[in-house]
Design goal:
The complex is a heterodimer.
Chain A: H1 4-12, E1 15-19, E2 23-27, H2 32-39, E3 51-57, E4 63-72, E5 75-81, H3 85-96, E6 101-103, E7 106-112, H4 116-123, E8 135-139, E9 142-146, E10 154-160, H5 161-174, E11 181-182, H6 185-194, H7 227-235, E12 240-247, E13 256-259, E14 262-272, E15 279-286, E16 297-301, E17 304-310
Chain B: H1 3-25, H2 51-65, H3 82-91
The chains are: A alpha+beta, B mainly alpha.
Chain lengths: ~350, ~100
């Protein structure tokens, strides 16, 4: 059960999360680049300190894990979500031949929210606020990735387990003036869904990177596991892709989406949006139907039909997009002009 | 299917095809059209556009769809994904 306060902190203030189950891998040695490049389907053009999103794919082109890969000098750091460390390591060794790959014994201490940058700058150093999105840095000697999974500013510190409590306490203490709240992994995942970020926990079973609209994470040049399956899926005239639905009641996975009484797809994940207050769903629709701005579809629920409209994601107008670390401060938050937080207007012919 | 819905879906598909062309031909996105998903982010590690490309993209959309993009419509979400561009074109009365 996610508390409203958790989501409020993520969306409007600062949220603190501690994850002892984070899977972080380091690939080192002379063959580090080659090994990671072979194992990931993404082009790996990273300068020292840069990060990017990637995937672990199976031979059928289905993501088995979400990956954030960062270059740390000549090493590569991988934060993996969706599979245990042993399986991710096996994937790296099998595909990349990585001989010097190991799981890090770390805990993730992360802060999220439109004012997270200010807390990080206050607790560590002012320069943190200027670090670009998708960067790897060090704070207090620990690895830290500026990435975020909620659409808001996000910083994930990977620290030795024995340091996590002290670090979290320091952030919580200094974060009191920002109204900091401790949030669960579930709250972060919920916000990721509202922002239409990929999360393995709500990906439809069997969907490839094509249906999931994650082809931007795939190289168009190099060979990778699953490439042939991806190419075949692209050629498939009957292919589907995920679309974002908004409804007035909660849907369930498996609910049929229809147009003029004809099935066009099915709901694959649904939640009540705690930010918006209405109901949002992911549906796998035939590609010709899977466009935003359509209000003519209906969802069959228990012998009746519920009106649904497709919306161009994200569903939230993130406040972090309107907060500028060069000009703003939490103390003067009232001076920032924020638009309504819910996005997604009207239907057919009505735009987003 | 109702005619206006059919027309709307066709129009969206046609605008999407033209947006993909613009991304490939004008913005030099090094991908095939069927590799450019509706939800692909345009910037950062998505389709790898940068702030200079944003200016080029604005001009290309205005010329390509014979529209004038008003400044107040170009908020932080306007150029977020490929689908955002389709919405932007439709909101400004653009036709494929």
């Amino acid at each position: 059960m996610i508390a409203d306060d958790e989501v409020r902190a993520i969306r409007t203030g600062v949220a603190l999360s501690v994850d002892e189950g984070v899977v972080a891998l380091r690939v080192a040695g002379e063959d580090a680049f080659r090994a990671v490049d072979r194992a990931l389907p993404t082009d790996l053009h990273l300068r020292d300190g840069q990060a990017r999103q990637s995937l672990l794919l199976d031979a059928a082109g289905r993501p088995i894990a979400d990956v954030l890969v960062a270059r740390d000098d000549e090493d590569y750091l991988l934060i993996v979500d969706g599979v245990p460390a042993e399986r991710a390591l096996a994937h790296l060794r099998e595909l990349g031949g990585a001989s010097d790959a190991r799981a890090l014994d770390v805990t993730s201490v992360s802060v999220h929210g439109p004012w997270a940058w200010e807390l990080m700058a206050e607790v560590f150093e002012a320069g943190v606020a200027a670090v670009p999105y998708l960067s790897l840095l060090r704070v207090d000697g620990e690895l830290c990735v500026r990435a975020g999974r909620t659409g808001e500013f996000g910083y994930e510190i990977l620290c030795p387990r024995e340091r996590a409590a002290e670090l979290a306490a320091r952030l919580a203490d200094r974060g009191a003036r920002y109204g900091i709240a401790r949030v669960s992994r579930a709250a972060l995942t919920h916000c990721a869904f509202e922002n239409w970020f990929y999360d393995p926990s709500f990906a439809p079973p069997g969907a490839t990177a094509v249906e999931l609209q994650l082809q931007w994470r795939l190289s168009s040049r190099k060979e990778y596991l699953g490439r042939e399956a991806i190419a075949a899926r692209r050629r498939d005239e009957g292919r589907e892709r995920i679309a974002c639905l908004v409804t007035d009641e909660l849907l369930l996975p498996g609910d049929e989406v229809v147009c003029d009484g004809e099935p066009i797809g099915r709901v694959t994940h649904a939640e009540r949006s705690l930010t918006r207050g209405d109901f949002i769903a992911q549906a796998l629709l035939g590609a010709r139907w899977a466009h935003g701005g359509i209000d003519r579809y209906r969802v069959r629920r228990g012998g009746r039909e519920v009106a649904a409209r497709t919306v161009t994601p994200p569903l939230v107008d993130n406040r972090s997009l309107y907060v500028d670390p060069r000009r703003h401060s939490f103390e003067c938050a009232d001076e920032v002009s924020f638009p309504p937080i819910a996005r997604g207007g009207t239907g057919v012919a009505g735009g987003a | 299917m109702e005619a206006d819905l059919e027309a709307c879906l066709r129009e969206r598909e046609a605008i999407l095809a033209r947006v993909r062309e613009i991304l490939i031909e004008r913005l030099k996105v090094d991908r095939g059209p069927d590799e450019i998903d509706l939800d692909a982010p345009l910037f950062a590690t998505g389709l790898l556009l940068d702030s200079v490309d944003a200016v080029e993209l604005t001009i290309a959309l205005e010329v390509g769809f014979d529209i004038r993009l008003s400044e107040d419509s170009l908020g932080p979400n306007a150029f977020r994904t490929v689908q955002s561009l389709v919405d932007l074109v439709i909101a400004h009365g653009g036709r494929a």
